[in-house]
């Protein structure tokens, strides 16, 4: 019986793999069914994940094990239930209170996090002596790093018209951004192709047994 | 009351989180810690709201027999099946309301929830993303037509990075003498990723970071209030 379910699992996986790839020919019912199963399972998976790994350990367990010490957690529980009232149109305005709480916390956390990681830390990392490095390749790279960061930031300054010396600097910034986009594209393409190879390995190895994984 | 109170809540909560960073002592440190815990719990409810909303939308589409409604039945059935399996027999590390379901594990090899996850969801997810490899290839064909300096730079950087990460790239320049090692494709790819790419990413991060800080301030001060809805 165990072997049957193992084989069934492999066949189900192969079936749905073909279902998704059938879209390469054109949109068809086989693809649509596979896609909707993916959406349904995905929603179901996150529903269960949220209950078992967020709500039970952070809310239900503390409240049931030691209510006296954790009664304050009733506040987020009530706010959470208020959030669910968004599904009832006549009283959906009540959900604004928990939403404002989440938005306020997110805004505060993001303000601090991005100020540190994306602004201060990045500026600090760029403030280097590019000629410190020995190897000429490293020196060249560091010069490009400093020039690219400064010109790139200048390109994002839209309060002044991009013309004259400012325009030339912004143009150099665009060149660096283009190299960056190209590199990011190359990396993304590689990642997707490696996923494709993984699927082919599954079909040829686990399913058909033509190759050994 | 329906609009002003949420704005006041946002202002107070946002301010406390920011102040607690600069004054990490009582009461701000404690309040901030509690707020972050509450945020996690309310976010959990928000995720559940999303799933229930998906259920409601699909249910209404089926009820009013909208175009392609049978496909939405498939969505609902797979959602209900996954949730039921999770609720009844739990997940790999947690028990459900019927316990761990050892007899089922003995029959099918996994808990039903994990069986579906490993044999269907994981494969569907990987296939869905690998499908993008084909579309990326066709998008590249259209966008990589080298007409301007910018598109040339994009094309060259992408090709060098891709070649540098394959064994073919390594073989193509493997014959170069040690003095020209810097032209070896894997090294060129590494150079592009480490310097010009980092410079571009850093500029984007600084720009986006400043934008996010501005948006956060606008939200905390109540200037940006679109999250409250139109009415």
Descriptive report:
The complex is a heterodimer of chains A (213) and B (231). Chain A has a domain at 128-213. Chain A is built from seven helices and no strands. Chain A has helices at residues 2-21, 29-65, 67-70, 74-84, 96-126, 136-155, 164-207. In chain A, helix 1 (2-21) packs across helix 2. The mean pLDDT of chain A is 92. Chain B has 231 residues and is mainly alpha-helical. Helix content of chain B is 74%, strand content 0%. In chain B, helix 1 (4-22) packs across helix 2 and helix 2 (28-63) crosses helix 3 (69-89). Chain B starts with a helix and ends in an 11-residue tail after the last helix.
Produce a short descriptive summary.
Chain A has 7 helices and no strands. The mean pLDDT of chain A is 92.
Termini gap of chain B: 13 Å
Proportion of residues in β-strands of chain B? under 5%
| Major β-sheet profile of chain B | none
Instruction: Give the terminus-to-terminus CA distance of chain A.
Output: 24 Å
Q: Helix count of chain A?
A: 7
The sequence of SSEs of chain A as H and E is HHHHHHH
Instruction: Specify the number of helices of chain B.
Output: 9
Radius of gyration of chain B: 27 Å
Name the chain pair with the biggest interface and residue counts per chain: A-B, 120 and 130 residues
Based on CA inertia axes, which overall geometry of chain A fits? extended
Rounded mean pLDDT score of chain B = 90
């Amino acid at each position: 019986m165990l072997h049957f379910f193992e084989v069934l699992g492999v066949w189900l996986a192969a079936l749905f793999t073909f279902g998704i790839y059938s879209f390469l020919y054109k949109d068809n019912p086989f693809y649509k069914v596979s896609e909707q199963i993916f959406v349904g399972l995905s929603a179901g998976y996150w529903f269960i994940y949220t209950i078992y790994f967020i709500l039970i350990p952070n809310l239900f367990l503390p409240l049931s094990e030691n209510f006296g010490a954790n009664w304050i957690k009733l506040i987020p529980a009530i706010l959470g239930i208020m959030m669910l009232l968004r599904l009832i149109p006549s009283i959906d305005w009540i959900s604004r209170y928990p939403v404002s709480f989440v938005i306020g916390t997110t805004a505060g956390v993001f303000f601090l996090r991005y100020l540190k990681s994306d602004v201060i830390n990045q500026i600090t990392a760029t403030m280097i002596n590019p000629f410190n490095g020995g190897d000429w390749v490293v020196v060249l790279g560091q010069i490009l790093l400093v020039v690219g960061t400064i010109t790139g930031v200048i390109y994002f300054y839209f309060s002044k018209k991009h013309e004259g010396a400012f325009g030339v600097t912004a143009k150099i910034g665009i060149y660096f951004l283009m190299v960056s986009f190209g590199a990011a594209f190359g990396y993304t393409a590689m990642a997707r192709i490696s996923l494709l190879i993984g699927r082919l390995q599954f079909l040829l190895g686990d399913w058909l047994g033509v190759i050994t994984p | 009351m329906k609009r002003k109170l949420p704005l006041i809540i946002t202002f107070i909560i946002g301010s406390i989180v920011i102040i607690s960073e600069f004054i990490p002592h009582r009461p701000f440190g404690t309040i901030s810690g509690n707020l972050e815990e509450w945020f996690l719990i309310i976010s959990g409810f928000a995720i559940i709201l999303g799933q229930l909303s998906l259920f409601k939308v699909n249910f209404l589409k089926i009820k009013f027999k909208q175009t392609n409604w049978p496909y939405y039945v498939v969505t609902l059935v797979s959602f209900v099946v996954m949730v039921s399996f999770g609720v009844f027999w739990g997940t790999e590390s947690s028990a459900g309301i019927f316990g761990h379901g050892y007899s089922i594990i003995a029959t099918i090899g996994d808990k039903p929830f994990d069986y579906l996850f490993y044999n269907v969801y994981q494969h569907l997810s990987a296939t869905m993303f690998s499908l993008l490899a084909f579309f990326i290839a066709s998008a590249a064909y259209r966008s990589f037509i080298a007409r301007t300096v910018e598109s040339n730079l994009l094309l060259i950087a992408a090709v060098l990075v891709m070649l540098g990460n394959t064994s073919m790239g390594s073989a193509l320049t493997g014959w170069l003498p040690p003095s020209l090692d810097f032209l070896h494709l894997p090294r060129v790819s590494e150079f592009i990723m480490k310097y010009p790419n980092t410079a571009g990413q850093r500029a984007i991060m600084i720009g986006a970071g400043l934008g996010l800080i501005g948006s956060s301030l606008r939200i905390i001060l109540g200037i940006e209030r679109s999250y409250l809805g139109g009415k």
